[in-house]
Amino acid sequence: MEIQFLNRGIFQRIFGVPATSKPSNPDCWRFSDGKLTIDLTKAPELKNSGGAIRLEGGDLPLRVLVTVDDDGAYRAYHNRCTHMGHRRLDPLPGGGVQCCSVSKSTYDADGNKIYGPAPEPIRTFPADVDGDRLTIIIE
Ligand code: FES
Questions:
Q1: If you measure from the C-alpha of residue 79 to the centroid of ligand 1, how many angstroms do you get, rounded to a whole number?
Q2: Among the listed residues 106, 113, 117, the one whose alpha carbon sits nearest the alpha carbon of residue 4
Q3: Fold designation for 10-137
Q4: Which atom, in ligand 1's list, is nearest to the CA of 105?
Q5: Which residues pair with 113 in a beta bridge?
Q6: Is 78 helix (H, G, I), strand (E, B) or coil?
Q7: Which pLDDT score is estimated for 135?
Q8: CA 124: distance to chain centroid?
Q9: What is the DSSP track for 30-48?
Q10: How many Å is the Cα radius of gyration of the chain?
């Protein structure tokens, strides 16, 4: 399998600056009782294939990266590379995610490592859509 590499500057990689932003509307999500709920009408970043947002802070117990695949399916990843720097991840065109660091550990859409020094897969979380509501179960 040929690995794609995101076009990121060396300083972005050295300092671990992810390409994926936090949502433009911070009120688009909430977390309660193990459920992360996103109001898709307030999250324009998730409107199109290739879109993504990173969610962190507040009551959320861990960082989450939410992406939209080419087929429109939503995916949710623990946004924490398993390599020692534990940097954030960005989506790859066509599926999967890549660490924003210099070493570029890369994982497939199921969280399995396919490139780089990361020792473990990353966790993924079930994501279900009901109308304009995306629900992600954080176990
Ligand atoms: S922290 Fe991800 S490859 Fe090093």
A1: 11
A2: 106
A3: Rieske Iron-sulfur Protein (2.102.10)
A4: 3
A5: 107
A6: strand
A7: 98
A8: 9
A9: EEETTEEEEEGGG-GGGSS
A10: 14
Residue among 73, 82, 34 at smallest CA distance from 52 = 73
| Mutation test residue for ligand 1: of 5, 83, 97, 115, the one with most atoms within 8 Å of CB | 83
Domain ranges of the chain: 10-137
Flag residues of the chain having pLDDT under 50.
none
If you take atom 1 of ligand 1, which residue's CA is the nearest one? 85
The Å distance, Cα 3 to ligand 1 centre, comes to 16
Can you tell me whether residue 27 is helix, strand or coil? helix
pLDDT digits (tens, 9 = 90+) for 62-76: 999 999 999 999 999
pLDDT at 63: 98
Give the separation between CA 56 and CA 44, rounded to whole angstroms.
18
H or E segment and range at residue 12: helix 10-15
Give the end-to-end CA distance of the chain in Å, rounded to a whole number.
Answer: 31
CA torsion, ordered 106, 111, 112, 116, to nearest 10 deg:
20
The pair of three-digit structure tokens given for residue 30, joined into one six-digit string: 């909430």
Pocket-forming residues, ligand 1, beta carbon under 6 Å:
81, 83, 85-87, 99, 101, 103, 105, 116-118
